[in-house]
């Protein structure tokens, strides 16, 4: 009986814990309110871009594109980092610029082609 209970608990733990992982693992998750450096944000943007490519959300051609602009902007909830990647060779000019937004402490917010 004791073994049956242990096996049931172990099985339930394995089943329910695997569903709690939401998305790709990232080393760019920060706590606190301290603003990170541009270098940290650029590294996180490159990491996030690779994740978006792997997930099929952006074209693999973005892999070779380097960041060309980073700035601290006023966002809805305070200061945010805005990182821009530009690919002038794309056919669809509405997707020429990839914008990524991060909190001041460096956490990813969103990515899009509109910059909004």
Q: Which descriptors apply to this entry?
A:
single chain; 116 residues; alpha+beta; four-stranded antiparallel sheet; 2 helices; 4 strands; 29% helix; 26% strand; globular
Biggest beta sheet summary: 4 strands, antiparallel
What's the arrangement of strands in the largest beta sheet?
1-2-3-4
Number of domain modules: 1
Gross geometry: globular
From N to C, what is the helix and strand string?
HHEEEE
Please give the count of helices.
Answer: 2
Q: List low-pLDDT spans.
A: 4-8, 10-24
How many angstroms does the end-to-end distance come to? 59 Å
- Average pLDDT over all residues: 82
* Alpha carbon gyration radius: 19 Å
Strand residues, percent = 25-35%
Number of strands: 4
Structural class: alpha+beta
Helical content band = 25-40%
